[in-house]
Amino acid sequence: MSPERWTRPGAAEGTSGPPAATAAKPTREQVIAGLRATSEGGADLVQLLTPEGERVQHPDFDIDLDDAQLRDLYRDMVLVRRADREGNALQRQGQLGIWVPLLGQEAAQIGAGRALRAQDMAFPSYREHGVAWCRGIDPTDLLGIFRGTDHGSWDPGTTGFHLYTIVIGNQCLNATGYAMGQRFDGKVGDQDGEATMVFFGDGATSQGDVHEAMVWSAVYDAPVTTGDLGGEKMARQMSRWVAENTHGKLKPAIEAGQAKSVELNALYFKGQWEKPFDKKDTREQAFYGPGGPVQSDFMHRSFGGHAFVQAADYTGTVLEMSSGATMEFILPREGLTPADLLADEGQAAQILTWDKAQWERGRVRLALPKFEYGGAMDLTGLMPPGAELRVEQGTYIKVDEQGAEAAAYTAAAGGAAPEPPKELDLVLDRPFLYTLHAPDGTLLFVGAVQDPTA
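Now predict its structure.
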């Protein structure tokens, strides 16, 4: 029975009809259908050509080429395909031990290769013959590797093209290390800076080297974008950067205006409680906010030998996370608000820096409301008089039985405590402060809960 019975359902044995989608020569319609299936990438997809080869305009990635440049690019593609077919023929004649073809990748390789500048560096796998051509390497220089007579006959330093990497995915680690060196040398971030480009295929994404390279580059990433600060394109790029670096929790519509400079930073944190709350113990009760009582879901847990503090004006405790990060909850005494606590600079410093000298240990019975909220505010009015700055800040925070998730961005354009008890019932049923510290003690987040249901 023909295997096409499975790849072309409905085709009777021995009958004619369109070939299977997996056949060596699928129909034009099957090719277009397959390409269209790869175009369903949502809003993040950048598409410059339709499956039929029609040009698509894009506001961020548009190019303007004259007829001569288009002819040169087409000439490059024809030449590298001819060289590729010659290499394939030599392999079949026994002149080469192996040849890795680039058939079907001509446009991608020539486009990427011609986008590189002289100071940039490319890290290939073993089939980027088109990129090699763009970097000035003679196609005959590639043959020695596949004939087994040399390991590569060109100088990566002068050509900006690393030697071929036979180990699948290993070039990603090399490229990441090289790019980090560029950053340490201060060679990135401006129009005269350097860039690193690495090539790998779908199969390489299952290799550990590729994942390690991605993790390493993400951990040490320090992206810098340059452009017209007053333009809509830059405003979209900054807004997209904030969304990406806060995992989609904040999506501001940043307007750079006519600023000469813009300072933009973002923070994202997600951690699991070291001792999660049991959902069975979550129940509804009243929270007494400035607008009157509201019903909210409160998480309950009893901790033995737990850290807490009881000062003259506030009571608090800390929840630890599996990563070593901590989140502190500070409840002002009756009659005081979170703002009152922070009005005293000395007291505010103790709270925000988590002064461990105040903390005791004992049994803590904690009732903590679940909350999730976010928003943005204009802080321009808080700037010193005469400061030509427009400052906007956005925040997001979520606390539930499993842990805490927080995100933020900032855009700037142009008396003795009584003896603490050994037991504490802490019911956070009125406005309270919270702080979030990294494992090294760095203050990441501070806020006040006025209404957990808002």
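The two ends are 65 Å apart (CA to CA).
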